[in-house]
Amino acid sequence: MPVYNSDIAEIFEKVADLLEIEGANQFRVRAYRDAARTIRSLSRSLTDLIEEEEDLTELSGIGEDLAGKIQEIVETGELDQLERLTRQTPADLAKMLEISGLGPKRVRSIHEDLGVSNLKQLRAAASEGRIQELDGLGPKTESKILEDLEKRDGEQQRTLLAVAEEFTGPLVEYLREEDAVERVEVAGSYRRRKETVGDLDILVISDQGEKVAEHFVNFEDVEEVVSQGETRASVVLRSGLQVDLRVVVEQSYGAALMYFTGSKAHNISLREMAVEKDLKINEYGVFPADGDQEQEDSIAGESEQEIYRLLDLPFIVPELREDRGELEAAREDQLPELITLDDLKGDLQTHTQASDGRNTLREMAEAARELGYEYLALTDHTGYLGVTQGLEGDEVLERMEEIQALDEELDDIVLVKSMEVDILEDGSLDLPDEILDQLDLVVGSIHSHFNLSREKQTERILRAMDHPQFNILGHPTGRRIHEREPYRIDLEKVIEGALDRGCFLEVNAHPSRLDLKDTHCQLAVEKGLKLAISTDAHSTDELRLMAYGVDQARRGWVTPDDVINTRPWKEFQALLNGS
DNA sequence: GCCGTTTTCGGCCCGACTGTTTTCAGTCG
After folding, report:
1. Which residue approaches B1 most closely, CA to C1'?
2. What are the φ/ψ torsions at residue A513 (nearest 5 degrees)?
3. Which nucleotide's C1' atom has the smallest distance to the CA of A233?
4. For the purposes of burial, counting CB atoms within 10 Å of the CB of A384, is it exposed (0-12), middle (13-18) or buried (19 or more)?
5. Residue ranges of chain A with pLDDT lower than 50?
6. DSSP states of A545-570 as a string?
7. For residue A15, what are the contacts with CB-CB under 8 A and spacing of at least 6?
8. Does domain A159-331 have CATH number 3.40.228.10?
9. Start-end of CATH 3.20.20.140 domains in chain A
10. What Cα–Cα distance (Å) separates residue A200 from each residue in A207, A243, A261, A448?
11. Is A75 helix (H, G, I), strand (E, B) or coil?
């Protein structure tokens, strides 16, 4: 049973929770959390790194001790320290940390003074009024705990970026209606273009914070006001999405935008760099470390550029601000020139009415032409999938003739004869060779037998890529965010296999797929593999989803050169033919 | 527990809001 990075990160997070409740040194707790974060954002598996005898202490936030603990987890699947901790402190206490308003101190006191060890007992204690008897806690906190416990039944989760965007427009527009509002920016993971957002972080420039906060909490979609002050406020919308508002004056715009964009890890690293230069960064600006904090003493803060410059760094785009090596790269002037939407010359996975799409071939072609594409691959499904009414045998050949005919008619866009071919359980392709030979582009995808072992699934994909006509592996891990886990594969082997065979991996741009994900893109690029960014559009409207694929690729450090469909048609064609 | 162009010991990002207090601890982002 292989141990995954996420397993190790989870163990470290549990250790951190329990240590925190025990009242351990906060910096020691932070070390475990930092390590967990580093591990989660790693593109390579720790199991492999250990196998190759790499030095784990090279990783940021991993020292001798934690490297040893990682080794222990990889070898035994568990961590002795965690077992010991759970004997002292019930592991269920950690769940109480998730209740808003409860941190380690309060959880500890509730446990020690009331004997409460799990959420059920917490609910009982709260409804019996025993919580408010404790020192430093009162009736308000108690009723808030009860409220949160009730709400948890409908488990809140992160919101897809594309869904969050729907809520953002009207809210931003509403904020602008208030005269005191000079400028509105949506920051946070939204600005970093993360695939999901936990909440929305909105920055407003104004010198009348209180007025703006008041206007904000009166938005028609607000269900609950969590907090409200002179410079910040938090609300929960009817959709369940939390929105945090922060108001600062113009002179602090850059500092506040940086602070509110995050990531938290990136900001902490920046602040540490500032400390080394005897400076202090907060959301109002950059100040001398020991000086006053009056606004006029600010050395920088109006723009993000200015703050980076003060730290001898070039501007770092929000998508890279994850503390995943961007600061080191910036210091060495090695930041990648990231791909943009404009770089793409074509879409390489689309569907029409011929299988499960909504529009006709012609409608798709015209929509792609309007987007300014040079080429478009029409990749309807093959027959294996009953539900999608894929094409078989002669139908495929007829289809290719249709594509060719329309291609000849339209002289300003190339229509690529292609199919999304099912990869069958044994790794063979769902079309006979003589038909595959007729295609200009083959996208191979897995749509069945998701539960094979990691070895078998990897082998299946490698065998499919062995076929000389195979070009692009569609949605390589098969995940659907919040809906379906990725199938188990050894992605590193798949990437190396693709390199060996002259194949490419897809970055599927659909907002609920985004597959490859950001760290996978980064791994592929590091290994020198080229990617295809495709929408998997099932209608003309969905061709516009390309932007999400580009966002994801940018988060994965992808440059235009790393992507095959940034090439003009002739070059692209040559690339497919392996030259 | 990690880490080092002042350090191998002594630091470790920074501020707002709430609820409970009567000056602040705890929580949160």
Report:
1. A28
2. -105, -65
3. B17
4. middle
5. none
6. GHHHHHHHHHHTT--GGGBGGGS-HH
7. A32, A79, A81, A82, A85
8. no
9. 341-576
10. 22, 5, 10, 36
11. helix
**A166 CA, B16 C1': Å apart:** 29
Quote the tokens at residue A206: 């104004």
Burial bucket for residue A548 (CB in 10 Å: 0-12, 13-18, 19+): buried
Whole-number pLDDT of residue A295: 58
State pTM to two decimals: 0.85
User: What is the rounded radius of gyration, in angstroms, for the C-alpha atoms of chain A?
Assistant: 27
Residue nearest to nucleotide B21 (CA to C1'): A136
Beta strands in A106-198 (DSSP E): 159-160, 183-186, 196-197
Q: What's the pLDDT at A89?
A: 87
Determine the pLDDT at residue A164. 92
pLDDT of residue A462: 97
Distances (CA, A) of A126 to A90, A120, A140, A147: 19, 10, 11, 10
The pLDDT, as a whole number, for residue A75 is 93
By the 10 Å C-beta count (0-12 exposed, 13-18 middle, 19+ buried), A262 is classed as buried
Pairing of strands A183-186, A531-534: unpaired
Whole-number distance in Å between A210 CA and B17 C1': 14
Q: What is the CATH number of domain A341-576?
A: 3.20.20.140
Please, are residues A302 and A253 in contact by the beta-carbon 8 Å criterion? yes
Q: What is the largest CA-CA distance in chain A?
A: 81
Q: Where in chain A is the domain with CATH 1.10.150.110?
A: 5-153
Token digits of residue A537: 């559009």
Find which nucleotide's C1' atom is closest to A229's CA.
B17
For A392, phi and psi rounded to 5 degrees?
-130, 155
Supply A519's token pair. Answer: 């760290």
| Whole-angstrom distance, CA of residue A62 vs CA of residue A21 | 23
- Closest residue (CA) to C1' of nucleotide B25 is A136
In the structure, how far is the CA atom of residue A434 from the C1' atom of nucleotide B20, in angstroms?
Answer: 78
List, by residue range, all CATH 3.30.460.10 domains of chain A.
159-331
Closest CA to A93 of A80, A79, A109: A109
Assigned CATH class of A5-153:
mainly alpha
